[in-house]
Amino acid sequence: MEFKRVYTSTKTYIILLISAIALLLFTTSMAYRQVMLTQKSAEMVVHTLHVYNAIGDLTNHYSKVESEEFRENLLKNKPFNKAFETYKLQGVKILDTLKILTNDNELHKARLKPLQGLMITLYDQLISLNLVNDINTPEELQACQLQRAKIKTTTNNIRSITNRMLADEERLMNTRKADYSFHKSLTPTMLLVMAFFALTVFVISFFGIYSNKLKIKKSEAFLKSVLTTTDNIVNYYEPIYHNNELIDFKIVYANDCVRDYLNLEPNDIMDKPVSNVHPFHKRDGELEELFQSYREHSKIFFDRQISVEDKKMWFHSVVIPLGNGILVTSRNSTAEEEAKEAELLFKKQLENQNLELLDSRALLTNIFKSILHIVIHFKSIRAEDGSIIDFEILFINEEAITINLGMPENIKNKKISEIYPDIFKSEVFTHLVNAVESDKPGRYEMPYHNNGTVKWYRYTAIKLGDGVTVTTRDITEEKEKANEVIKLNEELIIQNSILTDAERIAKTGSFLWYLDTGVCDFSDNLYRMLDYDPKEIKLTYEMYRGFIHKQDLDEYDKNTKIAINELNDIEHVFRIISKYGLVKHFKTRVQFLTTDVIIGVVQDVTQTIEAEKKLLKSNLELKKSNAELESFNRIASHDLQEPLRKIELFALRIKDTENNHLSTKSQEYFSKVISGVNRMQSLIQNLLAYSRLENSRRGFEEIDLNQVLDKIKEDLTTSINDCHAEIVSDKLPQINGVLFQMEQLFTNLISNALKYRNINQIPIIQIRCEKISASQISEHIEKSIKQYYKISFVDNGIGFDFQHTNKIFEVFQRLHQKTEYTGNGIGLAICKKIVENHNGYIFAKGSVGLGAEFIVYLPIIPL
Where is the chain membrane-spanning (predicted)? Predict the structure, then answer.
């Protein structure tokens, strides 16, 4: 800036002095006061710039801490104390400068006290950050992040104070610049006026004015030096009009920083349009903002990034209307922006690393939770001489609960000697120390005794840092299996011996036939079956084939060929002629172990075949007996009953026609004849029914026993009502059976209870049902089914003596005289045969006078 344009030259004052001698005495005091005010305004502007620059230096000082790169360089600098003290002294020096510069500002003095405390706090936090900088564990990482957050908070607080101080200084700058502009513009006028009115005091005025002018020049020179030495670009623009329209600004003044930052010579750009020198103003729309600031006399701020020789720089600019133009101050904020970008990049990288770390930690946690191994990491605790004296538990997974170590969170960060006081007496501590000191993985096995049980564990110790990670695996099952293998080998030897004896007892032998080599290995008992001692001869397959009966040889070869060609298992029977000429029947089953190896099992079935022949003969005889029984049934059903019907018919006719002519004795005899005939007919019918009960599964169907009971109660309604009997039943199951046989079973058992009732009380018949397992059946029987229905018929009748339990189910067996109770002794025998026909069992329990219980067990077979 050409300050001669702002301030009037010396010649002007001389002319004014000559012209205004007359009034100089009157205006001298006013002129002098105005000059002094102008000088003071300039000094205040310079003072404000010094304060502004000092605050800017402080801002740059603490902003470095926000840069991760700066913190890394500071913390990694060795020694740290020297670099840190240098950095701290810079901050103290800046604060001392601010104290001096703001000594006249009570508000700034009040703000410097907390600011100084925050700076001390910032230095302490940097020291703390240095202590936790080496991150080895998640806890240290968390502490480091917490310390960085504290530093961030402290710098934000410092920035808040410095921003308020800058705002105040900018306000003061505007005020003082306005004062300066006012006094600067008023002084020439006053001098001009004083020149016209101060002719009489020319000499005195001249020296006074000239002296003040020198002071102003000195202030201007001082201001120029400040503008030259500042780190900020300071430009002063004046407007360019065209047809009274503001179209651009010309550069009136530019300090040397233009050369330093933009590679432009200040003198070369003087009086040139701003849009030509700095085209980015017009391109980025900033020129309009400059117009607006000039027109509205408002201060504006903007940040811009420019490129100079492919180097990108950031500038923070402040535009202040000043005089007949605008003052543009641009501060190089490249370091701050780069620090912000680096911080954002680092923050993003840190977030990504944290996410990866969290994912890795989650994955590792899931792995530790899913594996069945116990994983523990120990940190070495060393004595002053460097020897390991103990270990600290840094990590342990939840599987440790299986060996009674407790919950992991309860034992973490404890010494191993606290958990296992006897650790130094065992070999475990030695193994852990060896793994750390030798840096070689250690593996060992040890038993663990707990509540009388012994478990074996295999430990793997691997060094990690100055500690050891121990993975423990339960190998109890492996130990037991190894013992089982040893035991199985022993048992196998015994079984081979038993098998040899079993072959001899069961009259069986075996052989292995290797088709690719033709070698055949025969068991010892197969030699004996051929009437040879074991290994008496070298038996081959061709020799074995020579023992086969000639009539069976072709069939044997045919079956063998089919088995080999089709790789099918075969079983066939053939005859052999032994060493002593005995004919024996051999049953052979051949199986393929592989396509080239056949195993054969040979059994001497001579006795079986002879027994089958005898059985066949017995079957023929049984068929003949069954045919005779069928013939008897036909005779019993017709030929035997026909005479009885005639006897009954003629006896009834004689009784009807001659009854009045017969004596009482004769009438009694005729009644006995008719009664005997009826009993005989009933006996024949029951015998037929008993003999016709088939022991087969023919006619079986799904039966609901509840419906069977309802039908029987309906059929026996008369008998039930006559004795006022009560029948109580549980819910009965559905079974597979023959319907008419189940109806006969229920009819016989209920009728039996009604017949043998106690006449002194109302008959109560209880039918109970439950599902039981075969093991719950107390009676000694062979149970072929796993589950049964237990159906009990319980009455309160006359009962029976327990010693007759088995007798009552025999045919024609009666416990009472026929004169006491009717019947022929076949009903319960029929019940037993029906139950057995359904693969069940029936039993009876009773006591004389206390009732009876008939228990029926029916197998549970899927419907």
Answer: 12-32, 190-210
Task: Divide the 863 residues of the chain into consecutive groups of 10 and give the mean pLDDT of each group.
Answer: 45 60 65 73 79 81 75 64 78 84 80 83 78 67 78 84 82 78 72 64 64 72 70 83 84 80 80 80 76 83 75 82 84 76 76 68 58 74 82 73 60 73 72 79 73 73 81 74 68 53 62 80 82 83 84 85 78 85 84 79 81 77 65 57 71 76 76 70 60 57 92 88 90 90 88 85 92 79 79 89 71 47 66 87 85 90 65
Place of tokens 């423990």: 472
Question: Whose CA is closest to 13, among 208, 183, 182?
Answer: 208
Three-state SS sequence of 197-250: HCEECHHHHHHHHHHHHHHHHHHHHHHHHHHHHCCCEEEEEEEEEECCEEEEEE
Distance CA 457, CA 475 (A): 5
Q: Are 809 and 832 in contact (CB under 8 A)?
A: yes
* Residue 276 Cα distances to 257, 265, 392, 818, angstroms: 19, 14, 73, 146
| Range list of H helices, 583-663 | 606-634, 641-658
Q: Nearest 5°: CA angle at 813, between 808 and 815?
A: 70
Helix axes 664-692, 606-634, angle to 10 degrees: 140
Closest CA to 755 of 711, 811, 792, 716: 716
Asked if residues 777 and 857 have their Cβ atoms less than 8 Å apart, the reply is yes
For the record, the structure tokens of 469 come out as 């990670």
Going by the DSSP 8-state scheme, the letter that residue 738 receives in this structure is -
Structure tokens at 493: 């030897």
Q: Give the C-alpha separation, 139 to 561, whole Å.
A: 79
Three-state helix/strand/coil letters over 94-120: HHHHHHHHCCCCHHHHHHHHHHHHHHH
Cα separation, 859 vs 777, in Å, equals: 12
Q: Which residue has the tokens 């004015």?
A: 209
Residues comprising the chain, all counted = 863
d(CA 781, CA 803): 19
pLDDT at 819: 44
**Which residues share a beta bridge with 770?**
790
Closest-CA residue to 442 (of 457, 429, 451, 432): 432
pTM of the shown model: 0.31
Residue 57 belongs to what H/E stretch? helix 21-66
The pLDDT of residue 75:
64
What is the DSSP code (8-state) at residue 599? Answer: E
The span from the CA of 557 to the CA of 189, in Å, is 146
CB distance 791 to 807 below 8 Å: no
Beta bridge partner(s), residue 448: 455
Distance CA 277, CA 593 (A): 100
Residue whose pair of structure tokens reads 């121990």 in the numeric block? 470
Report phi then psi at 726, rounded to 5.
-125, 125
Coil, strand or helix at 679: helix
* In contact, 552 and 586? CB cutoff 8 Å: no
Task: Identify whether the C-beta of residue 202 lies closer than 8 Å to the C-beta of residue 67.
Answer: no
CA gap 560, 589 in Å, rounded: 11
